Fold:
Amino acid sequence: YRFADVELPIHFVVTNQAGRLPMRGSFLVGARLSWNTARNQPQGISLYQERVGLDIGLGVEFSHKKWKIKPEVVYSHGINNIHNLGDTPYDWSVGRMVRDRLALRVFVWK
Structure:
């Protein structure tokens, strides 16, 4: 099954601003709304195209001259059931499906 997601993440990020160290830790919490724009559906099962998830993550911000680099690890827990229970052949054997994701994202700015 292919996913071609469009997502709208809304995150609250807290960064340690104390001190003049070249490295600062950060913590994020938030949510995301996503829509799967892929048209194909797997045979024998029906999935929703809309999803909601809760995000939590940790990051580290590095300063190098005028540049800042911030890698973050974000865990997204799908809080809704993505399986549209209906009359397809595999509905009862699949049961409840939840989509989780672990992502590494890197921000670079001047």
